[in-house]
Protein: DUF218 domain-containing protein
Organism: Desulfuromonas soudanensis
Amino acid sequence: MPVVIFVTFFLLVGAYITGPAVLEWFLVVKSPMTKADALVVMAGSRYQRLPAVVELYQQGRAPKIFLTNDGVSGAWSKRYQKNLYLVEWAREYLQGKGVPDEAIVLLNFSKSGSYYDALNTRDYVLTNGTVRSLLVVTSDYHTRRTLWTFNHVFAGTNVKVAVFPIPKDPAYKGRRLRVMTTELVKLVYYLVRYGLFPVG
């Protein structure tokens, strides 16, 4: 624990001296995986991630797309005459871009958060035993925590996990440091709360 606190303090000081570059160096992970059995789309900032998912799917990087579910209700749908959950709107987006319905899987919701997204992904994968590799698509600053979480949750299985970082959004220019500082705090919380450490 003292080591975790020291590293966190060091990274925060370095970030405020040099800008977000230090945090970016620490938080952003790139995993080499050219193809996978499924793409997993993390729920937060989903509409920044979905265009990249469509592109990856069209490139043949994976035949399936798993949409994690944060349980949040979205706007009214004239087509369905009800408010759709955000995960359902994500499915609508993918279908509108030409992704067939049979390629899309809506994962269950238990609780909101990356840890529960990983648990619900694992439950589906282990129940439907044809998936052996996952490429998790998320924002670049979220990749380290995501990879640690999925590796921890899938430990003991034969499922390989990699992450695909969505490049930083230009709209984040003025708040990049704040966003990445918040992510570092979340990462430290995960280390303490769930005992996550790099696997392998």
